[in-house]
Every structure is written in structure tokens, then in C-alpha cells.
Amino acid sequence: MINTATMNKRNRQKGQALVESALVVLIFLCMLISTFDFAQVLFVHNSLVNRVRISLRWAAMNPYDEISVKNMVRYSQATQPQGAQAYLGLTESQINVTRFDTGTATERIQIAIVNHPYHFFTPLMARVFTNDLAVVATLPTEYRP
Length: 145
Prior knowledge:
Blueprint: H1 4-61, H2 66-75, E1 95-100, E2 108-113, H3 123-128, E3 135-140
Antiparallel strand pairs: 1-2, 2-3
């Protein structure tokens, strides 16, 4: 004959293991998705920095044209290709091109990407992260007409 006290203890232990497993899985999934969100922020930021640097090198070696520089950031070429999508959804208003000391030996060009949106998997990460960091790079111009 099976003791009912022993059966109740076994059932409670099974329920306790189920609750503990559910809590561990929930915490693990939250950490995993947060890691994906953080990796996405790093990837997008690094991609934007790389795109700005490439465009800045191009702008330093060619005649200054603000629209061409913005197209270099958005499309990797000076002219907008027919039907092409901008890189990472960049809009022209998110790209600031500034020219300093025009016509002097210390002439510089600065490109900045501001207010680029990030899309997160977790709402917690979206509330914590603010996109106050702009991607900015400055380079002296080499082009002399």
C-alpha cells in the first residue's frame, strides 16, 4: 500500500521543479533577447561609422557637392541609383554635411548622422536606450582645384 503523504510530497516536488524551470527559462530568454538587441545596436552603429568614413574619404578627394556626399552615405555612390533603397533606411535629413574654413589650407569636411532609429526586440531595452549619440567624423580636404 502506498502512503498518501509520500505521494503528496512527490507531487509537490514535481510542481516545484516545473516552477523553477519556468523561471530559469524566462530569465534565460530575456537575457538572450537583450543580447541580440545590444548586438544590433553595436552592428548598426559600427556600420554607420564605416559608411561615414568611406563617404568622408570620397568627399575629401573630390569637388565639394553636399548632395553627392549625402548620396555617398546613403547609396555608396555620388548619384542616387534608380529605385535603390538607402542604406539602413537613412534619410537625407539624418545626414548633416558641414564644410569648415572654405578656401584655406585648413579646409575640412564633417559628416554627421543624427537621430537614426533603432528597432528593438524587447521594450525594456527601447526604454533604456536613447539615441543621443550621433556618428560624426571630420577630415581635411585634399582636393584643390
